[in-house]
Amino acid sequence: MTQPERFMQQALDLAQRGEGRTAPNPPVGAVLVREGCVVGEGFHPEAGQPHAEVFALRQAGEAARGATLYVTLEPCCHQGRTGPCTEALIAAGVSEVYVGAVDPNPQVAGQGVARLQAAGMTVHIGPLESECRHLLAPFAKRITTGRPYVLFKSALTLDGRIATSTGDSRWISSEQSRALVHQLRNRVDGILVGSRTVMADNPRLTTRLDGDCRNAARIVIDSRLQTSPDAEVYSPDAVGRRILVTAEHHPDAAYAPYLERGVELVRLEQQEGHLDPTAIMHALGQLDLMFLMLEGGGQLGGVMLRAGLVDRVMLFVAPLLLGGDDGLPLLSGQGVTALADAWRITTPVVTRIEDDILIEGEVQRCSPA
What we know:
The chain is α/β, with parallel strands linked by helices. Helix content is 27%, strand content 25%. The protein is built from 10 helices and 18 strands. The protein has a 9-stranded mixed β-sheet with strand order 11-10-9-8-14-6-15-18-17, sandwiched between helices. Helix 3 packs parallel to helix 4. The model has no long low-confidence stretch (mean pLDDT 94).
């Protein structure tokens, strides 16, 4: 690993500490280096707080003059909740900047790099550009489409089932795989399930880890208000946002029990008796939710996939066979009729976790819909 790669990796490691906490801003890490030694570092902890570059500059003090900055995202050049980082870097006398990825925000989109270059700084794009773009994917999705980035996570058997015919699914995946899911819950902005999952499993959807962790928003899609207001997912005993996405035609009295528990309601118009999945995602994007993990069953997963709203999958395949054709499939509903219309997992990564096999990758339609 070259020196620029080493310091950019350090910036990436810092940025990851902000995952799930910065929305609607991206997680960003920054490292200031002078004569081969780190003189300042920082990461963006949450919206409204200083950006990563500012924390690094504060730590470096006068040592920032003539130093080289490694930052995972192009420094901002516009006034938001905080001032433009480009001007702070120029004032501090930083001489060279390595930018992991250009900002997809149309308000920046290369203008930050141009401003630094105009001030006489040497600016490089990269190294580790693909790694930085991967980290920024949820931010890029929301800032360009208004919708959150969706990761579909599931555990399934070798014959593609997520539960038996009676709904028994505890536990298909290994203990180590489930621990990894809790680490992921600690990095996303929200966890999304459907009403059937709530009624069948009564999940808490909380993050259960030792040390510094928090609960992502627990989100239920329930157009008919079938889920009990007393369900665990709505419990105010677990800190964190609770959001119910439902239809707008119900009487006010039907919403009252959820509101009394402090649940946020998103009321949407139904189309042909159903909530439009794209409208759901736009509504959740407006709530500053940037990175969602879909943990619902096969029905919700199928709906979201067919609507083109699943960006990435994370599938834990266990060495189990249920047999027969009556178990619950990974994805339900109408599938494609030709392989040319299938969805492909691009650049899949395969990892062994105990006896499970984890397959993850981006989702791409083989041919335009």
